[in-house]
Amino acid sequence: MGRRRGLSASALVLVFGTVLSGCTVWPAASLSVDDAKREAIAFLEQTVREEAHVAWPATPDPIATRCAGGDGVRFQYLVAASTKKGSDLAESLGTYWTSAGLEVVRSQEDFGDHGVMYSATARADEKPWGSYEISRSGINLYIESRCAAGDIRDFE
Prior knowledge:
Blueprint: H1 2-21, H2 33-50, E1 63-66, E2 73-81, H3 86-99, E3 103-110, E4 116-123, E5 129-135, E6 138-144
Antiparallel strand pairs: 1-2, 2-6, 3-4, 4-5, 5-6
């Protein structure tokens, strides 16, 4: 009886981790680091093209992070820009990401005198991810690559 409970708990942890991470725990065996970066940059460029009214800066260098489960590496691009179009921008980005096949989860919180914070995450299997935080002072746009074969220590 105790052994069966242990197996169920292990299976639950694996499933829970997979659901939370939005993808499988292991990197795509066929996805190279260069391909992962290329996909993420293309997704970033498509996203900012959709929002051409924002004065986006140049594409930054990515930050390497470890994939869930410890195997593989993913790359995150952070782009910050000024904007006064909070709710309109939040709606537009969410609509675009949904049309691109990502599942978008949105939220907003009213901070009274400090304004409303809009945020969202956009996830899909086999695609780069997106998320944003928009306040009255601007937007932080995050794009994350898919997991690629590699070791995080190679990018530290």
